[in-house]
Design a protein that fits this description.
The N terminus is likely disordered. It contains ten helices and four strands, in the order αααααααββαααββ. It is mainly alpha-helical. The strands form two sheets. Strands 1-2 form a two-stranded antiparallel sheet. A two-stranded antiparallel sheet has the order 3-4. The longest helix has 50 residues. The chain has two domains: 202 residues, no CATH class; 82 residues, no CATH class. It is rod-shaped.
Length: 312
């Protein structure tokens, strides 16, 4: 009987199986160090523009960013502690929503920083720094948040809307041109995020399929009536089912992997399932067939009087 594993279409995270959706959420909460370092850089930059301009709203942005960053770091630690208690998509979705809220607030504050720099000051340094740092941070959307398509869209809107508003409402014609160029930039961020997400999804699905195949192979192997061994090119055992132990009179927990034909028969002699006088003939029969010298079946009799037929 043949079977195939279907790759689910990832139209929405909640439609994915939990063994695929949960790793996507895991990807959001990894590498908390980058969040910490990035937050220090951003908060320091906002404080620098406040020191340069004296605009109190910039100080408010920096203070709020610091609070949000602390909350997000604590959220990451809480997720790491509670990761083992996740039970399916419903739990993972709640954590995703919490991450989306924190990340969206961060990007919205960065966009507000740009808006304030243009609307409340005429300082070229503050405007340059706010836009440069915000765009640099927006590039990181692809690197940190690609696991959630919903999150990427929310972050782009939270960042892009205030920046475009600042350029269009308080800039010159050259600023309007720059505003138009920001649109393909944010589209590129979205496309890159989608591609990275598909790559991660393909890797997770491939791992899942390999695991399913291994489980089904193990189930089939250990529920067949015949004893079975598979040998590699060096004539060492790489796969053996439980029935081979039963048929050869071997202890159930005996490890057979990496044994050659001589080692396998030696274990049978040690278990007193096979007479030493018959062992050499059985080894020769096996080795001839493993080398391709013969393909016929052969028989052997155990100490118990049971006769076994071997097919190689």
């Amino acid at each position: 009987m043949a079977f195939a594993l279907r790759v689910p279409k990832a139209s929405a995270e909640q439609e994915l199986p939990s063994e695929i959706y949960v790793p996507l959420v895991d990807s959001l909460y990894k590498e908390g160090r980058t969040l910490f370092v990035g937050s220090i850089m951003v908060i320091g930059s906002v404080l620098t523009t406040y020191w340069k301009t004296g605009e109190v709203l910039l100080l408010a942005c920096a203070s709020t960013l610091a609070v949000v960053a602390c909350v997000r770091v604590l959220e990451m630690r809480a997720y790491a502690r509670g990761r083992e208690q996740l039970r399916g998509n419903a739990d993972a979705r709640r954590w995703e929503h919490r991450y989306v809220a924190g990340a969206a607030m961060t990007m919205l504050l960065l966009g507000a920083w740009c808006f304030v720099a243009f609307s409340r000051t005429s300082d070229a340094f503050a405007q340059l720094v706010s836009f440069s740092i915000t765009i640099a941070y927006a590039v990181g959307i692809s690197g940190r948040n690609f696991g959630s398509s919903r999150l990427v869209t929310v972050l782009i809107l939270c960042t892009g809307a205030p920046m475009l508003a600042a350029l269009l409402l308080y800039g010159s014609a050259y600023h309007w041109i720059f505003a138009g160029l920001l649109i393909p930039f944010f589209l590129a961020v979205k496309f890159i995020s989608d591609r990275l997400r598909r790559t991660l999804l393909d890797a997770v699905i491939a791992t899942r399929n390999v695991s399913l195949l291994a489980d089904r192979f193990d189930t089939a192997l250990n529920n067949m009536p015949h004893g079975l061994c598979m040998f590699d090119a060096a004539q060492n055992i790489v796969v053996a089912n439980q029935q081979i132990h039963e048929h050869l009179g071997l202890p159930p927990g005996l490890q057979l992997k990496q044994l050659d034909a001589r080692g396998l028969i030696a274990r049978c002699v040690d278990a007193e399932a096979l007479a030493a006088a018959d062992a050499q003939r059985l080894i020769q029969e096996l080795e001839i067939r493993l080398c391709g010298g013969d393909s016929s079946d052969f028989c052997a009799e155990l100490q118990s009087g049971r006769a076994l037929e071997f097919a190689v």
